[in-house]
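User: Please predict the structure of the protein below. I'd like the answer in structure-token form so I can feed it into my own downstream comparison script.

Assistant: Understood. Taking the following sequence of 136 residues as input:
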Amino acid sequence: MPLSKLEHFLVMTSDIEATREFYCNALGFNDGFRPDLGFPGYWLYLGDTPAIHIAEWTTYTAHSNRLGLPVTRPAPGTGALDHIAFQASDYEQFLARLQARGVNAHRHDAPEANLRQLFLLDPNGIKLEINFFSPR
């Protein structure tokens, strides 16, 4: 059976509140239902999909160790992960939203692909790429 869609990323953090606030307030995710998983965290939704899961390092690691599951170790930068990309609409409105919240974004345009991009960092140093495609 082939894969059908990308579901979520887990962001490990020492500050779940600041991470939730960034993704909800700066990027527009919605905080939604999350079952009791035995450690604190959030599920942040894009539409009906809980696309970003947030967990606190210490309690998630202890929980995973109890289950016998390996946990990714912190690495300089973001380890093997370079960035997470999202597609969005209304470049100017999105950029204004970031600026109003004090979020710095590097701008990049690729006119040959009808693409405008914003690159920014979340509170944990994870690089995010936001893509805005224009009709040809």
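That's the full token string. The beta strands are 9-13, 30-32, 41-46, 49-56, 83-87, 106-110, 115-121, 127-133.
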